[in-house]
C-alpha cells in the first residue's frame, strides 16, 4: 500500500503541472509545425516576430507573450551577490501568466525597461522582506533596475521557473527580428468561448503573409500538457513523460494486486486454523452470507489497519523519495483528492483480497471440517486449487515482466552513458562568459590556453551537447525554391573541433591562418546530405551572415538527446557572440586545471564568482527523467518480486498442509527427502514456466515500444529473456524448496496418527 501510495502521489504531481494557473484551460504554448520530405516536424522554439504578428492578426487571442533566453545573471544588492535564474519577457507576460502580486503590480512593472519583477524568494534573500517595491538591484554587474513588483514563487509544478523578469526590449537585437531565427518561446491566452482549433485555423495564414513560407504554420499545445507531452508525430502530441506516468500507474496497480493475491493465498494457506470455527458457526445456524460478510469485514478492517501503517511508512520515506526524484511532494491528509483515494484504496483492497478467502472459508463443510480439518472441507469448493495456482501464475508473470524491464532499462541507461556521441565529453568543462570577460575575451582565452593542464579552449554560443536553436535561412545554388529547410544553427570560435574532439569528414575547422573564415561555415554530414553535396568543401552557401564558403564537414555527432535523430548543423564563426568557453583539460589534472582557471578568471573578472560545469554532467541532465525511471523501476520491481515470492511461499505452505498424509505415506513406503522435495517443487516450477510463457510476449511488445522512443537504442536480445527466466526459476525454486524440505523432514508418525 505504501508503494502504491507513493506512486499515486508521484503520478498526481506529474499530472498537475501548470494546473495551478488561473484560467489554465485558456493558456497555450505556440508550437511550429513544418512539413519536410512528407513529414510534419514540431518544435517549441518560435521566431520573435511571431508574437507581434499574433497580437496584430489573430482576434481569438486575448494576450500573447514571448520569452527570450538569458543566462543566470549576477544579482547584487549592497554586499550580497549571487547568480539568479530569470528571463527577458514581453509586455503581456503577466496577462498570460497571472502569478499573484505580493507588492506592486507586475503587469505595470514589466512594461517599463527600467523595472524588474522578482519573486518572494529573491525579495526575502536580498532584502529580508517582501515589501521591496522601489528598491534597487544591479543586474550582471552593470545596469541598475528598480523593483517594480514582487510576485509569489513559481511552484515546483510550473514548467516556467523564473526568479526575475525584465522587459524583452532591453536586450533585443537586430538578429532577433528575423523570422528565420527560432530561439524564443511564445505563449497565448485565448479569449473566453474561443477554442484552440479556431485559433490554429486563424494562425495558418501568418507564415505565408510575413515570411513566404507555405510549409510552416503555428499550432497550440495546452499549457497543462507541456510537461507530459514533449514528443510529436506528424504534428500531433504522441508521447513523452506521460509514458512513464502510465508505466508507473500500471506498476502501482500490479504491486497492489500482487499484495492482494498474497493475502488470498496466505489466508487460504492458514485456513486450517479457522476451519473448525467455521464448522461450529455453521452447526449453530450461521448462514453462508453472514460468514462471507464477516470475512469481508475482517479483510476491510485489515486493509484499514494496513493503510494506517502505510501512511506512516510513506511519511517516513517521502523526504528521501523527494530528494532522489527531485520533487517537492507533500502528504496532505486534508487534501480531498487524497481522502477519496484512501477510501477507494481501503475498499478495493479489502474486497479484492478478501473475496476469495471469504468464499473459500464459507464453503467448508461442517461435518468434514469438524472431523478432519480444512482439507476435508475443501471438497465443497471446486476449482479452488486452479484459482490459487492461476493467481500465483499472474503474480509471477508480472514479476517476470518487471525483471525484464529492469534489465532493459538498465541496459539502455548504460548505452546512453557510454555511447560514442561523435564528440568527446570526458575531461571537458565549460565556463560562462559574463561580466568583464566579454570585454577582455581574446586575452582571457589566450591566458587559459597557456595553462599547462589545458589542451584546448573554444568559445561557443550554445553547449554542443544540447543544440536546439533552428533556422530556415539556409540556401545554396540549385536549391529547389519550394523546398523548406530547418537546420540546427549556432556560432563558435577557433578550436571548437579540437576542443570537443570531433572527427572531420572533409576539410578543416575555422583557423587563425585563414582570416577569410569570418564569413565561412562549418557543416556536418547531415547538412551535406540535405543539400545533396558529395564534395561540399569550398562550395558556397547563403546563411545568417550572407554568402560564404564551406571550409569543413564534421562527422555527425549527437547534439541533442538520443531520443532525436541527428539533424543538419551549420556553424558560423562569431567568437564574440559566445555564452560559454569550452575547455579540454588533461586527464588526472582536474584540480590543477581548476586552480589555474580560477586564478585567471578572478584576475579578469573580479566581481563575479568563479563558476564551472563539466560537460558530462550537462549530458547526464538531459537524461534525468530516464535515470529516475530506472531507479523507480528497480526499487518497485524488486519489491514486486519479493511480494510474489511471499505468494508462492503461501501456496507452497497450503499445498504441504493439504498433502501432509500423502507425504507421510510416501516416507513410510521408502521415499527419500530429495524425492519428496522434487515432487512438491515440480508443480510450482510448472506454474513459473507458464508465467514465463505469458510474460515474455507482453514484455517484448511493451519494451519494444519504449525503446522505439529513442532513435538510438540497444537491441531487445533473446539473452535478456533467458536471464530473466533463469532468475525467476531460481527465485521460485529457492522460495518453494524451504517449505518442501520442511515437509519432507516431517515425522510420518505425526501426520498419520489419526488414521
Describe the fold and architecture.
The chain is built from 24 helices and 27 strands. α1 (2-15) crosses α10 (288-325), α9 packs across α12 and α22 (673-707) packs antiparallel against α23 (718-744). The radius of gyration is 33 Å and the shape is elongated. The chain folds into four domains: 1-17 and 227-382, no CATH class; 27-69 and 171-225, Alpha-Beta Plaits; 71-83 and 97-167, no CATH class; 428-619, no CATH class. β23 and β24 (546-554) form a beta hairpin. The chain is α+β, with helices and mostly antiparallel strands. It is 48% helix and 19% strand. The two termini are 44 Å apart. The model is unreliable at 373-383 (pLDDT under 50). The strands form three sheets. The chain has a 21-stranded mixed β-sheet that branches. The protein has a four-stranded antiparallel β-sheet with strand order 18-26-17-27.
Query: Structural class of the secondary structure composition?
Result: alpha+beta
Mean pLDDT: 82
Distance between the termini: 44 Å
Q: Compute the number of helices.
A: 24
- Biggest sheet, in brief? 21 strands, mixed
Strand runs, count? 27
Low-confidence stretches: 373-383
Helix content: 40-55%
What does the radius of gyration come to?
33 Å
What spatial form do the alpha-carbon principal axes imply? elongated
> Strand portion, in percent?
15-25%
Number of structural units classed as domains? 4
Amino acid at each position: 500500500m505504501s508503494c502504491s501510495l507513493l506512486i499515486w502521489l508521484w503520478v498526481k504531481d506529474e499530472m498537475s503541472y501548470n494546473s495551478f494557473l488561473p484560467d489554465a484551460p485558456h493558456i497555450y504554448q505556440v508550437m511550429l509545425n513544418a512539413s519536410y520530405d512528407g513529414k510534419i516536424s514540431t518544435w517549441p522554439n518560435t521566431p520573435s516576430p511571431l508574437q507581434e504578428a499574433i497580437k496584430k492578426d489573430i482576434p481569438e487571442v486575448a494576450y500573447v507573450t514571448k520569452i527570450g533566453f538569458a543566462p543566470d545573471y549576477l544579482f547584487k544588492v549592497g554586499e550580497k551577490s549571487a547568480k539568479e535564474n530569470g528571463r527577458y519577457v514581453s509586455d503581456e507576460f503577466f496577462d498570460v501568466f497571472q502569478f499573484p502580486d505580493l507588492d506592486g503590480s507586475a503587469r505595470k512593472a514589466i512594461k517599463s525597461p527600467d523595472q524588474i519583477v522578482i519573486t518572494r524568494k529573491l525579495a526575502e534573500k536580498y532584502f529580508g522582506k517582501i515589501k521591496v517595491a522601489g528598491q534597487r538591484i544591479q543586474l550582471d554587474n552593470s545596469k541598475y533596475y528598480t523593483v517594480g513588483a514582487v510576485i509569489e514563487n513559481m511552484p515546483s509544478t510550473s514548467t516556467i521557473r523564473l526568479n526575475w523578469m525584465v522587459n524583452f526590449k532591453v536586450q533585443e537585437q537586430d538578429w532577433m527580428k528575423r523570422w528565420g531565427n527560432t530561439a524564443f518561446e511564445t505563449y497565448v491566452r485565448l479569449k473566453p468561448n474561443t477554442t484552440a482549433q479556431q485559433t490554429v485555423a486563424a494562425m495558418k495564414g501568418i507564415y505565408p503573409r510575413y515570411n513566404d513560407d507555405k510549409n510552416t504554420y503555428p499550432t497550440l499545445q495546452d499549457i497543462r500538457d507541456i510537461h507530459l507531452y514533449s514528443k510529436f508525430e506528424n504534428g500531433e502530441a504522441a508521447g513523452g513523460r506521460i509514458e512513464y506516468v502510465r508505466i508507473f500507474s500500471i506498476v502501482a496497480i500490479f504491486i497492489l494486486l500482487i499484495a492482494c493475491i498474497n493475502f488470498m493465498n496466505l489466508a487460504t494457506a492458514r485456513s486450517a486454523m479457522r476451519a473448525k470455527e467455521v464448522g461450529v458457526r455453521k452447526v449453530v445456524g450461521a448462514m453462508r452470507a453472514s460468514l462471507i460478510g464477516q470475512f469481508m469485514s475482517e479483510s476491510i478492517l485489515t486493509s484499514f489497519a494496513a493503510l494506517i501503517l502505510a501512511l506512516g511508512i510513506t511519511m517516513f520515506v517521502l523526504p528521501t523519495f523527494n530528494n532522489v526524484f527531485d520533487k517537492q511532494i507533500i502528504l496532505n491528509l486534508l487534501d480531498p483528492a487524497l481522502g477519496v483515494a484512501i477510501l477507494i484504496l481501503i475498499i478495493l483492497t479489502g474486497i479484492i483480497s478478501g473475496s476469495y478467502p471469504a468464499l473459500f472459508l464459507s464453503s467448508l463443510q461442517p461435518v468434514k471440517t469438524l472431523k478432519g480439518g480444512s482439507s476435508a472441507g475443501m471438497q465443497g469448493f471446486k476449482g479452488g486449487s486452479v484459482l490459487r495456482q492461476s493467481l500465483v501464475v499472474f503474480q509471477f508473470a508480472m514479476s517476470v515482466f518487471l525483471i525484464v524491464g529492469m534489465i532493459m532499462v538498465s541496459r539502455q541507461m548504460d548505452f546512453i552513458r557510454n555511447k560514442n556521441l561523435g564528440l568527446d565529453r570526458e575531461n571537458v568543462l565549460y565556463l560562462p562568459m559574463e561580466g568583464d570577460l566579454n570585454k577582455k575575451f581574446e586575452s582571457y582565452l589566450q591566458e587559459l590556453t597557456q595553462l599547462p593542464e589545458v589542451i584546448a579552449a573554444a568559445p561557443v554560443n550554445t553547449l554542443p551537447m544540447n543544440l536546439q536553436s533552428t533556422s530556415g535561412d539556409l540556401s545554396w545554388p540549385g536549391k529547389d525554391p519550394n523546398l523548406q529547410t530547418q537546420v540546427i544553427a549556432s556560432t563558435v570560435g577557433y578550436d571548437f573541433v579540437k576542443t570537443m574532439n570531433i572527427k572531420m569528414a572533409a576539410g578543416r575547422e575555422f583557423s587563425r591562418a585563414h582570416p577569410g573564415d569570418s564569413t565561412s561555415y562549418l557543416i556536418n554530414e547531415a547538412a551535406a546530405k540535405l543539400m545533396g553535396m558529395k564534395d561540399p568543401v569550398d562550395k558556397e552557401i547563403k546563411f545568417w551572415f550572407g554568402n560564404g564558403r564551406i571550409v569543413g564537414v564534421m562527422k555527425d555527432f549527437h547534439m541533442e538527446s538520443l531520443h532525436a535523430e541527428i539533424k543538419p548543423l551549420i556553424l558560423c564563426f562569431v567568437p564574440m557572440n559566445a555564452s560559454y568557453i569550452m575547455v579540454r583539460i588533461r586527464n588526472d589534472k582536474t584540480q590543477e586545471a581548476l586552480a589555474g582557471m580560477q586564478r585567471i578568471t578572478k584576475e579578469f573578472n573580479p566581481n563575479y564568482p568563479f563558476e564551472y560545469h563539466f560537460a558530462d554532467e550537462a549530458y547526464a541532465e538531459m537524461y534525468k527523467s530516464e535515470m529516475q525511471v530506472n531507479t523507480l523501476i528497480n526499487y518497485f520491481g524488486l519489491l514486486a518480486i519479493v511480494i510474489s515470492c511471499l505468494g508462492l511461499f503461501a501456496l507452497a505452505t497450503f499445498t504441504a498442509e493439504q498433502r501432509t498424509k500423502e507425504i507421510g505415506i510416501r516416507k513410510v513406503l521408502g521415499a527419500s527427502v530429495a524425492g519428496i522435495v522434487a515432487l512438491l517443487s515440480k508443480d510450482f516450477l510448472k506454474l513459473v514456466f507458464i508465467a514465463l510463457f505469458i510474460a515474455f510476449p507482453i514484455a517484448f511488445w511493451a519494451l519494444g515500444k519504449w525503446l522505439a522512443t529513442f532513435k538510438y537504442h540497444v537491441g531487445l536480445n533473446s539473452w535478456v529473456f533467458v536471464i530473466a527466466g533463469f532468475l525467476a526459476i531460481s527465485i521460485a525454486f529457492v522460495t518453494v524448496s524451504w517449505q518442501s524440505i520442511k515437509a519432507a523432514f516431517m515425522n510420518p508418525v505425526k501426520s498419520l496418527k489419526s488414521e
